[in-house]
């Protein structure tokens, strides 16, 4: 019987055999299928990671958006970690709406307390709240654009998630 074998994971704990499509054989001499590979003297080919998909890129995009971005606003000495989950963006939009109402009424000094992604409290003026919202939304837009560029590549680079040059800087 002639067959080939290949590791099916990076940890090299399972193998597949060409004569057993879809097999996932434990690397254990007590397993008769694995023992047959060893007894036949078959060299087990290295694990080959599957090519990244658009769904993989979407998951990395979501991870980066949720992790957020470090923002610096005009006239404020501290960096602000803004997480960009849906509920965070909703909250920040509400704060920015109120800030814009205050600015429209001529109030640019009333402080609003904002708890950032690192649980640090920041007292910000209405213009700073609006600026923080604008910068965080610009980051989300840039992450989306980067993901679309990656998804348009054929093939998607294997290092799409770890190569910082593909994504906007977050400061994290």
Please provide a written account of the structure.
This protein is 40% helix and 17% strand. The chain is elongated, with a radius of gyration of 25 Å. The strands form three sheets. The protein has a four-stranded mixed β-sheet, with helices on one face. Strands 5-6 form a two-stranded antiparallel ribbon. A two-stranded antiparallel sheet has the order 7-8. The model has no long low-confidence stretch (mean pLDDT 96). The longest helix is centred in the last third of the chain and has 27 residues, at 126-152. The chain has two domains: 5-45, no CATH class; 54-166, no CATH class. The protein contains four helices and eight strands. It has 172 residues and is of the alpha+beta class. The termini are far apart.
Task: List its traits.
172 residues; 4-stranded mixed β-sheet; two-stranded antiparallel ribbon; 8 strands
Could you provide a short overview of the structure?
The protein is α+β, with helices and mostly antiparallel strands and 172 residues long.
Q: End-to-end span in angstroms?
A: 55 Å
N-to-C SSE string, H for helix and E for strand? EEEHEHEEHEEH
Number of strands: 8
**Which residue ranges are poorly predicted, with pLDDT under 50 across at least 5 consecutive positions?**
none
What would you call the structural class? alpha+beta
User: Mind summarizing the main beta sheet?
Assistant: 4 strands, mixed
Compute the gyration radius: what is it?
25 Å
Helicity range: 25-40%
Silhouette: elongated
Mean pLDDT: 96
């Amino acid at each position: 019987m002639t067959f080939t074998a290949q590791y099916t994971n990076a940890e090299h704990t399972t193998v597949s055999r060409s004569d057993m499509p879809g097999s996932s054989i434990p690397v254990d001499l007590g397993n008769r299928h694995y023992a047959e590979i060893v007894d036949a003297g078959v060299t087990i080919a290295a694990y080959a990671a599957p090519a990244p998909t658009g769904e993989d890129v979407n998951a990395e995009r979501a991870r980066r958006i949720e992790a957020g971005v470090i923002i610096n606003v005009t006239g404020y000495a501290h960096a602000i970690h803004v997480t960009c989950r849906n509920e965070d963006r909703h909250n920040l939009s509400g704060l920015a709406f109120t800030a814009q109402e205050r600015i429209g009424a001529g109030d640019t000094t009333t402080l609003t307390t904002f708890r950032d992604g690192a649980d640090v409290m920041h007292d910000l003026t209405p213009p700073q709240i609006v600026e923080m919202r604008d910068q965080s939304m610009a980051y989300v837009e840039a992450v989306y654009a980067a993901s679309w560029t990656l998804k348009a590549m054929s093939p998607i680079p294997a290092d799409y998630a770890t190569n910082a040059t593909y994504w906007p800087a977050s400061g994290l």
